[in-house]
Specification:
By secondary structure, the chain is mainly α. It has 2 helices and no strands. It has helices at residues 2-34, 55-60. It is 57% helix and 0% strand. It is elongated.
C-alpha cells in the first residue's frame, strides 16, 4: 500500500512539473513573439519606404520643445 501511495505521489509531482515547464515555455514564446527584431538582411534588400533616414532627414524631423539660454 505504501508503494502505491509513493508511486501516485511521484506521478503527481512529475505531472505538475511538466505542466509548469509547459506554461513557462508558452510565456517565453509569447515574450519572444512580442519583441520586434531588426531586419534580417538590411544590406541585401529593404522594401520601399523602409530605408534608413540620413542624418539631415533625422535633424529636420526634430521639433523644438523648449528654449535654450
Amino acid at each position: 500500500m505504501d508503494i502505491l501511495i509513493a508511486l501516485a505521489a511521484a506521478a503527481l509531482l512529475i505531472a505538475l512539473g511538466t505542466r509548469l515547464i509547459h506554461r513557462l515555455n508558452a510565456q517565453h514564446d509569447a515574450r519572444i513573439a512580442a519583441h520586434h527584431f531588426s531586419d534580417p538582411f538590411p544590406a541585401i534588400f529593404r522594401p520601399p519606404g523602409h530605408s534608413h533616414h540620413t542624418p539631415t532627414e533625422q535633424a529636420s524631423g526634430h521639433r523644438v520643445t523648449g528654449t535654450w539660454p
